[in-house]
Amino acid sequence: MKLIKSIVRPNKVDEVKDALARLNIAGMTVTEVRGHGKQKGHTAIYRGKEYNVSLLPKMEVEVVVADALADEAIKAIVDAARTGEIGDGRVFVFPVLESYRIRTGEREV
Ligand SMILES: Nc1ncnc2c1ncn2[C@@H]1O[C@H](COP(=O)(O)OP(=O)(O)OP(=O)(O)O)[C@@H](O)[C@H]1O
Ligand SMILES: [Mg+2]
User: Global pTM?
Assistant: First the structure.
């Protein structure tokens, strides 16, 4: 399994969610986060000096999927979240060793 952790624009979350639903991905976790990428958030010029104004609000979408589904899921997320402008977000992919459903104790590898 893989954990696909995506940081996307808040107004793209629904499209990402729908794209993942079309792949029958069973679960996801969505969290409000703040951050910046390589442009270091918004900048503003004050008295001739450039300042970092903020950590911008983003949404983090986490999905754990079977290895065989990962590439398709990543493509679906990237296509759904892209506007083509800076700040569209990032996708990070991690290996997942095990997962347990607490209700049943059932283990997935
Ligand atoms: N290296 C990183 N580590 C952790 N989080 C990151 C990293 N880069 C970006 N992020 C997260 O992703 C969000 C969106 O990043 P952003 O889209 O600006 O990335 P970027 O690499 O600067 O790409 P772009 O040039 O398209 O803006 C950030 O607000 C931050 O939450
Ligand atoms: Mg950026």
Answer: 0.90
